[in-house]
Write the structure tokens for this entry.
Amino acid sequence: MYNVWACGSNGNCQLGLEDDKDRDQLEKVNFRTPQGFSRALDEKPVKIACGGNHTLILMHDGSVYGCGSNESGQISSSQLQAGVFEKLEMPYIIKDVVATWESSVFVTQQDQIYVCGKGLSGELGLGKSCTQAGLTKLDLPETGRIVKIESSLHNVVVELENGTLIGFGNNKKGQLLEGGAKLVWTPTKLPTKARQFSLARDFAVYLNDSLKIQGKDQFQIASTAQQLDVKEVQQIRTMWSSVHLITNTALMSIGNNSHGQHFPGFDSSTTISSPTYAIGSEHGLVASDSKVFAWGWGEHGNCGRHRGSLSGVTFDYLNQIYSEPQPVVEVFAGCATSWVITRSTC
């Protein structure tokens, strides 16, 4: 059996806890199943994708659950708002999913892309005349096996097996196409190829032999990155305004650190083996075994409660938010929301 725990921003019931109150402690989310409401699932959740006020959970069997705001049709439900996670009526088996602020993007097992919701900056990819849609198939300029899809607030990039990158959505800072139109309304081949990439709010990061920042570099990330040896970097993750480079042994942070967004590192009380990281809008999570710690901007309770006499919304240390006996399977972080998937035997 699996449980999903959540805390943080909840103004549109996006935590699946049946109300719209923010949480500063993890709670088990609720699912509507054919047997009734349940806080436990037989099927394993494999990914959680978060929009501004909606959440999607992809299951191992290719089904998807959604909750939160559906005002723009972003969870493809008959309700304006879902207070618990409900299984979406998808006519396809889904292998990946991402979310922008008010839209959802689904990748099928047949490597087709479907979108729904609202996209005033082109993030639906359906053209300038279509800024809101129910579940609609998206045509790509090149076909092939889709190996990766990333999103930010208002744009999406898809990677094909041959390395081709295809993007659409907000390009006001040149984060998709340097010198291109401010809004990329339909899926467009990008001139860049990368072994790793990630999308922030106003810039994109591409990693090959060096780290390339494309778009608005307000926090001098590119100049800092030039001083780093990136050969050992295995993953790139971005918050809205910072970059986090994951190697076998460490996580390195560069960019905005106004609210403790940089990874603070481990000390004698927080050292864990084989850590797993999740990076959200302006906060992060690190997990191993039966422990989860949060750091960064915790304005909505997404970093838990402060230790002792500490206060404020900045968590410039690793704050433990989970210590239950059930082992942690995976962690995810969204727009000021934190998610922990655990496994139990009963």
Observations:
- The first strand starts at residue 2 and ends at 8.
- Residues 1-89+288-346 form one domain.
- The two ends are 7 Å apart (CA to CA).
